[in-house]
UniProtKB/TrEMBL annotation:
<protein>
    <recommendedName>
        <fullName>F-box domain-containing protein</fullName>
    </recommendedName>
</protein>
<feature type="compositionally biased region" description="Basic and acidic residues">
    <location>
        <begin position="405"/>
        <end position="417"/>
    </location>
</feature>
<feature type="region of interest" description="Disordered">
    <location>
        <begin position="390"/>
        <end position="420"/>
    </location>
</feature>
Length: 485
């Protein structure tokens, strides 16, 4: 990195904007390098280093808490506690080998060696900040690669006092001994709005412990705890571990009924049968993003009894995003029929062709042609462009083959104007997007953007005529399909 001299081509403000960009992404190595470039770069880089804190060990905790308690940081910074907005805590293991010291050929074994690491230093941090040094501006807490054990019995009270304004918590491959321990942890955040679970495919589940027992929320939930969960509106579930236990927890505590947004299986498909009760209970759900392999319980022609995922109870649903493998999608029409016709505004169907299944020997283009067959596309096209059923004339008391007297006396133009035009069944629907998710190396072997657009426009003529059809071919590393960009 070049030193910024006083005669630099660009003013200092330009460099500060670049530092701001990387400061949004927890890029600690980059920020530390910027802080060592020059005196003009140091304040901005140090600001972001304090704004986004990472704690890996008890030593980090002691250094950070002492700085917060003093109220002063380097370069004369004051009100350090008020500058901290995000915190990432990682588990530690005293005898673990650092990733940098592991040879490349043995790097695959590192996650298994370092997986079960204690998070006790998070409890220490909360206890030291629970008094006058609490972080009132901390809104995000991320916890990664650790196990919730060896905690103080009052750790929940310490977390609540030290981090009173946390609105979002993300758990990356974090293990709890029991559902009750997880519940106590969750209820410590009175302002929590969004909780996310990100489980590595090779990692541990979020809830793993002794023999599985029926979850009883009354064991640990008191009045204040129930009040704390009333603000929870967004839930993210990723990975195939512990989805059943998590679903039961949010059902038993009543959180499912108040959810507005639900993301399931972004990185890895989740067993649908384990989360279907959670989705059905979320009657106030506004947005659903789900990655599934099949939404029916058996092969063959989909019938209402076979469909595992039923969106009929989600009467407020506005946005639906389905991520699917290119396979036999005969059940898709049955699923879309159950979507709330009065409220749905946007539907996105993403065919994930980044990593074909090993048993698939069919050409990818042929597989896509079979998945989005003309029969399936026509049925979906007609479904979204269908009209509401008009009331039967026989049920109308004043029904008559002759027009009313006052209507016969009106001019022809006025009589025609009085006739009600038919209404679309999906009156609120604005966008239906069909997308391909591909890898850069295989994009040419699947479909290019123009070719995919032409194919979809030919198979959805009614949606195209209503200017509601959208298509896209997105590369794997794109952020177009991320929850939050």
């Amino acid at each position: 990195m070049q030193t910024a001299h006083s005669d630099s081509v660009f003013p200092t403000e330009v460099y500060e904007r670049i530092i701001d960009y990387f400061g949004q992404a927890f890029d600690v190595p980059f920020l530390r390098a910027c802080a060592l470039v020059s005196r003009s770069w140091y304040p901005r880089a140090r600001f972001h280093l304090l704004r986004s804190i990472q704690l890996h060990s008890k030593t980090d905790v002691l250094s950070f808490t002492q700085m917060v308690r003093r109220g002063r940081g380097p370069m004369g910074l004051t009100n350090v506690a008020g500058m901290v907005e995000r915190m990432m805590v990682r588990g530690t293991e005293p005898n673990a080998t650092p990733v940098e010291d592991v040879k490349k050929e043995t790097a695959e074994d590192v996650p298994r060696v370092r997986m079960r690491r204690s998070l006790v230093h998070l409890g220490t941090c909360a206890a030291m900040l629970a008094g006058r040094a609490k972080l009132n501006n901390l809104t995000y807490l991320g916890i990664a690669d650790g196990e919730w054990r060896d905690m103080h019995r009052n750790v929940g009270s310490h977390l609540s006092a030290a981090f009173p304004k946390v609105r979002r918590v993300d758990l990356f491959n974090v293990k709890f001994r029991s559902t009750a321990d997880f519940g106590r942890f969750l209820c410590a955040f009175n302002s929590l709005v969004h909780i996310g679970f990100w489980v590595n495919p090779r990692g541990q589940g979020a809830l793993q412990g002794g023999p599985r027992t029926q979850f009883n929320p009354d064991v640990f939930m008191h009045t204040n705890a129930r009040r704390a969960l009333q603000n929870l509106r967004k839930l993210t579930l990723n990975g195939q571990k512990s989805t059943r236990e998590l679903g039961e927890y949010f059902l038993a505590t009543g959180v499912a009924e108040q959810l507005d947004e639900l993301w399931i299986g972004y990185y890895e498909r989740v067993p649908l049968a384990e989360v279907a009760p959670l989705i059905s209970a979320a009657t106030s759900l506004l947005g659903l993003d789900i990655t599934v392999e099949s939404i029916v319980g058996s092969q063959g022609t989909a019938t209402p009894k076979e469909v595992v995922l039923d969106l009929a109870p989600n009467t407020q649903l506005r946005i639906l995003m389905l991520r699917l493998q290119p396979s036999n999608l005969y059940w898709l029409h049955e699923l879309l029929q159950r979507v709330s016709a009065k409220t749905i505004q946007g539907i996105t169907i993403i065919l994930d062709v980044r990593r074909p299944l090993l048993e698939d020997t069919t050409n990818m283009r042929d597989m896509l042609q079979q998945s989005v067959s003309l029969q399936l596309c026509t049925s979906i096209d007609e479904l979204f462009c269908s009209f509401e059923e008009q009331p039967d004339s026989a049920d109308t008391p004043a029904a008559s083959s002759e027009p009313a007297v006052e209507e016969r006396n009106l001019p022809k133009e006025e009589s025609t104007r009085r006739a009600r035009p038919p209404k679309y069944r999906y009156g609120a629907l604005r966008i239906v997007q069909l997308a391909l998710w591909v890898r850069k190396e295989t994009v040419q072997s699947v479909h290019g953007s123009e070719e995919w657009t032409a194919l979809m426009r030919a198979r959805f003529p009614l949606l195209r005529a209503r200017n509601m059809l959208m298509t896209a071919v997105v590369l794997e590393d794109s952020t177009d399909f991320l929850h939050e960009k």
